[in-house]
Amino acid sequence: MNGLDWVAEFPGAVTLSDTQGVIVYMNQKAEKGYGGSLVGQNMLECHPEPARTKLMKLMETQAINTYTIEKNGIKKLIHQAPWFTDSQYAGFVELSIEIPFEMQHFVRTPQPAK
Hints:
This protein is 18% helix and 35% strand. By secondary structure, it is α+β, with helices and mostly antiparallel strands.
């Protein structure tokens, strides 16, 4: 077992692209959500405007984008972020995780070191 084996069956969708937007990996949940593997396709083609332009800008600036959506009665947290290999920009990852409509929120205050 290698360190990434857990991603295949992770209960959230994980889609990984290279620096040009070509999808290089999808876990089982992502493939199920898109009706099959999109590996080899450009993820920009999967996003309509204006989302496509926004994603292009995120990739250019290596910025992070996080938001929630509701689709078919399911609320999801979407997190899009650059990923790196040996400190070099390697592409973008999109995480899509189902979340409850009502969630607890905790504010944690740091405890002084002992």
